[in-house]
Amino acid sequence: MNVVTAKDELKSKIAEYKKQNKSIGFVPTMGFLHEGHLKLIEEARKGNDIVILSIFVNPLQFGPNEDFESYPRDQQRDEELANSSGVDLVFLPSVNEMYPQSPGYTISVQSRVNVLCGKSRVGHFDGVATILTKLFHLIEPNRAYFGMKDAQQVAVVEGLVEELNFPIEIVPVSTIREADGLAKSSRNVYLNKEERREAPSLYRSLVIAKEEIVKGNTNFEEIKEMIKAYITQNTSGVIDYIEILTYPQLEEIKVPKGKVILAIAVKFSKARLIDNITVEI
Predict the structure, then answer these.
(1) CATH number for the domain including 263?
(2) What is the CATH number of the domain that holds 40?
(3) Quick one: 66 and 98 in the same domain?
(4) 242 pairs with which residues across the strands?
(5) Does residue 266 share a domain with residue 210?
């Protein structure tokens, strides 16, 4: 496995792969790898000749009061996991390498960002879209893999690729969960013992709501109240949002038909957890 920290060296490696007509599967991450990331790597390994993993904690997608400095990092462990998972190349740049000066150009995302996490994290998806645009140009992947745990991010990235005509296939991968249902997340380490015991209730609330929709209930305000009640009764977390929207458009449901997403965000003492589930009506 190659570990590359410089853009020029990365481009040289990409040129070699392209010359050999090798397909490239790309898994962008912020590191502190867990089973969710490893599933993305596994899927990329199945469908491509070369798997490239990026590890970069991107400052542009963190707000002024968010956890950029404290975001968990473990480079040695990440490299070991990447190597054992069959990654061919890890791109591990510094902030100065990706942003040698204050960015003069950024991507401004207008669609699919005025709801869910985008509503309270103004500018977050601008940062996501900007770094992905840079990485897509550097790596030129055939396919890029994203976890459905952050379904809004998947929707935004699909829109970015479609509107800017990137020749890349975006491959969504199902959320990987703990045995008790909690979605795998690098931020789960911030939960204290009691919060960790409570956290699976987030997913349980979504499952109960999905079952209600499958039964034919399309009173979405009533279903959101059900989710709210379950989370309030079973956790000490503070609800940030509960939404039921069309997917991937992330718009208000005017006609109860097609794919919809049930999405939640809950704040605990040191962690803000998100989860979602989709259902066809």
Answers:
(1) 3.30.1300.10
(2) 3.40.50.620
(3) yes
(4) 264
(5) yes
Contacts for 122 with CB less than 8 Å, ≥ 6 apart: 63
Domain co-membership, 65 together with 102: yes
Structure tokens at 36: 């969710």
Domain holding 194, by residue range, is 186-276
pLDDT one-digit tens code per residue, 238-251: 999 999 999 999 99
C-alpha to C-alpha distance for 144 and 157, rounded to whole angstroms: 10
| pLDDT, tens digit (0-9, with 9 covering 90-100), for 116-171 | 999 988 899 999 999 999 999 999 999 999 999 999 999 999 999 999 999 999 99
Task: Report the domain count for the chain.
Answer: 2
Question: Which run of H or E residues covers position 226?
Answer: helix 220-234
Catalytic residues: 37
Binding residues for ATP: 30-37, 147-150, 176, 184-187
What digits encode the pLDDT tens for the residues 180-230?
A: 999 998 889 999 999 999 999 999 999 999 999 999 999 999 999 999 999
pTM over 0.85: yes
Residue type, 54: S
